[in-house]
Amino acid sequence: EEYFAVTPKLVHGLLLLDIRRTPSADDLMKYSFYKNNSLPVTVVLTKADKLSNNERAVQIKAIKAVLKAETADELVVFSAKTKENVDVVWRRIEATL
Fold this sequence. Notes:
Low-confidence stretches: none
Distance between the termini: 22 Å
Largest sheet: 3 strands, parallel
Strand content: 15-25%
Order of helices and strands: HEHEHEH
Number of helices: 4
Shape: globular
């Protein structure tokens, strides 16, 4: 946390979460750090290929509730296996750079 608090190069956060799990206390702490420091954050929900569309919708709603996510926060459903939204994540990284 100390490193992130003092580096001027931190301009955007990427928080990778397993879509099948509820965010942990550590996940919440990382998310809170970004929000408390007024940093935009993209939440990347990994392993999306493991769930049906209905299961995804349920999990996204639950994750947003646990995070108390703001509407401005970007949530990206992602799968490395199927390459779903890989381009979206790369565009977000490139736009930040």
